[in-house]
Amino acid sequence: MTPHELFFKSVNPTASRTLLLLHGAVSSHHEWDNVAHHLSSYHLLIPDLPSHGQHSSSPIPLTLENTASLLKDLIANHAHDGKADLVGMSLGGYTAIYLAQKHPELIGDLFISGVGQSWPKPGTWTSSANASVMFLSSSGLTSLPKGVFDWISTKAGLSVHEGLYADMKARASYQLTLAVLSMLGEDGDENWNYRFERVGKRSVVVAGVLDDGEEACRERGKQLRVGNEQSMAFKVEGMRHAWDLQDPDLFAEGIKAWMEEESMPERFVLVDSSRCG
Length: 277
Description:
GO molecular function, one term: hydrolase activity
Strand order of the largest sheet: 1-3-2-4-5-6-7-8
Number of helices: 10
InterPro entries: AB_hydrolase_1, AB_hydrolase_fold, AB_hydrolase_sf
Number of strands: 8
Shape: globular
Mean pLDDT: 88
Helix content: 40-55%
Pfam families: Abhydrolase_6 (PF12697)
Domain AB hydrolase-1: 19-253
Keywords: Hydrolase
């Protein structure tokens, strides 16, 4: 791996169809360990995004353009036939949207979650407040004794793999939190709305409805359908924002159903009424 490549894992390399799995903020490729077990029929490319994971050696700053460029190279060099379907959680979901808009020739279908939030431009009071909240709710937790971290995670219904905990602890910093929010707020909300509308790929957005708003998910579904009328929006009751860590089996079921163009699992509830009837 050169300084201008991302660390990544390639899983099930003999499978014919490639999925690129993109993790959330202050996380790593280990976020997908339990989901990947249920996706054995797919070739999986699972990278650490810039500035994330213990092994990420890329000095390139965490920006949308830089991240998309690195992921473009990863797909071109390692995905079967130089093309991949995208799965993204939170930061990974926004990254998937940007990547699909910038490099549509490399991208198939999209399955994304946790992408309903608004992001203020960097340097504003709201952005600074968001950084403090995000740091305390994610990075700050890893500064607690491991037993306390495990208790909090269990109370939230989340199963945090030991490898993921180690990566989160190694990279946890207020500076990384600021970099993430700066990346998400680069061009403000209006451009995010535009980007969702410009994705011409068959896409599904899913909300873990305990934390992510149903209305925001519905709006994202409408925006995605501007670019592709097959796109849809669903909610899953009883799930938190990071529900890939809460119910990896169900998360993987949703991925497989969407990629194979089958009916979504029963617990996936359609939230876009304009799709009904």
